[in-house]
Amino acid sequence: QVQLVESGGGLVQPGGSLRLSCAASGFSFSRAAMRWYRQAPGQVRELVAYISSAGGSTNYADSAKGRFTISRDNAKNTVYLQMNSLKPEDTAVYYCNVNWVSNYWGQGTQVTVSS
Fold first, then answer.
1. Torsion of the alpha carbons at 57, 20, 91 and 42, rounded to the nearest 10
2. What is the pLDDT of residues 42-71, one digit of tens each?
């Protein structure tokens, strides 16, 4: 079955960086576009970044442009989200997502940006 396991979240000061990872299994990873979403307390889940199956196309939410970078390693079945210049408003649970026949989500990883 499809499994997505996120890691790499934590507490970081404003201006700091984090790298999130999402290890995928149970589907043909190299054929699937991948997405990162986030959900802050009391807010709707929002799309942060998208990467095509081969990694040649990426898209970002306006809030992430210039600070976040999505990438993937198809040999390792892993997608990453490099987050730089983090702000308190980036605080949220970050989720990995794939639409492979059905929509699948990981369990999420908490990112807290605070001094």
1. 70
2. 999 999 999 999 999 999 999 999 999 999
